[in-house]
Each structure stands twice: as C-alpha cells, then as structure tokens.
Design a protein that fits this description.
SH3 type barrels, 4 helices, 2 domains, single chain
Length: 181
C-alpha cells in the first residue's frame, strides 16, 4: 500500500528547494537526508532528499535530482509516497482508504450516513459525510466530535454540535414551519 508523506508546494529560492505540505506525523524519519521517495505520478521520481530545513513551522526540502528553481516549479503538486504494510501504523491513526465506506452513527444510535473520504484542511483533517438525503457535510476529525472509530466494526460514532449536520438545518426549517401552525 502506498501512502502520501507530503505534497510538493511552491519553489523556494533559486537552487531547487521546495516547500512541503506534510501528510505525516513523523517528517524527521520519513524525510531524512538520503531517503529515496517514490512519487505520484511515478514518472516524476523517485526523488532523493538532499537537505531539509524548517522555517516558522514549514518544511523545505532540496532533492538531489532538482538543481534549480525551474525544475522545482515543475514538481509542484507531486506527491511523495512510501510503501507500507497494511498492518503497520499507530493504534489511533487511520488512513483515508480505511475510513471511506464506514457507517456514521450518532452517539445516540441514529444513522447519520456514510463516510466517503478524508480531507486535509489547513486547520485540521475533516471526515466527508454523505448524509441519507445526499448532503455532503465536513465533520472535524477531532476526538470531541468523533469519539469512536471502529474500522473492524465498519462504523464511526459522531457527537456533532448543533448545526453541524445538513439535516440540522432541515429539521430547523420543519420546526419553524410547524411552530407557526
């Protein structure tokens, strides 16, 4: 299985350095100098990490195969990937392919829909929930809102604050209409 470690961002400077959008919790190990990383698309790599640095919390990398800014700009949007075994990983870490297709249930037992994916936003990751009416809702993937992820059981439990779900808005409209009668 291949997992994305980082996505290459904009070129930085004139000597081929690039900014990275990290997708790993362990960049020091995954991006160690000398590491050879396959790419997606595959024809853009593999790339060998020649130098890394951080500045204001942002990671910058220079690859041995990239000598100048023009070559660095051509890599923008390319993903750096690693091969991992299916059973490798942390107890409380899930990959997008494991989450897609899980049944989403409210903590009170109601069916909320199906998880269709995971998106990486600047502030945090969000689960993409398809509600029964087809509405798409982004659910912050934090323990306070998603207290249980049960991949073997095929479900996630969600404890959404009021107004998070699209169905909350529909229920509010119905309540207001019936309140006036």
């Amino acid at each position: 299985m291949q997992l994305t470690v980082a996505r290459i961002g904009r070129a930085h400077g004139l000597r081929g350095e690039v900014a990275l959008d990290l997708r790993t919790d362990d960049p020091q190990a995954r991006l160690a100098v000398g590491t050879v990383l396959p790419t997606d698309p595959a024809d853009r790599g593999p790339l060998t990490v020649a130098r890394t640095r951080t500045q204001q919390g942002r990671w910058y990398v220079q690859f041995a195969e990239v000598a100048d800014r023009t070559a660095a700009e051509d890599l923008r949007g390319v993903s750096l990937v690693v091969d991992v075994a299916d059973d490798e990983g942390e107890d409380d870490a899930w990959y997008p392919h494991e989450l897609a297709g899980l049944r989403a249930e409210h903590v009170d037992g109601r069916l909320l829909g199906e998880i269709t994916g995971l998106e990486h936003l600047p502030a945090q990751d969000v689960l993409v929930l398809r509600e029964p009416d087809g509405s798409r809702t982004l659910v912050p993937f934090v323990r306070a809102i998603v207290p249980v992820v049960d991949v073997p059981g095929g479900r996630v439990l969600i404890d959404p604050p009021g107004g998070l779900l699209a169905s909350d808005a529909q229920n509010l409209v119905i309540s207001e209409e019936t309140a006036g009668e």
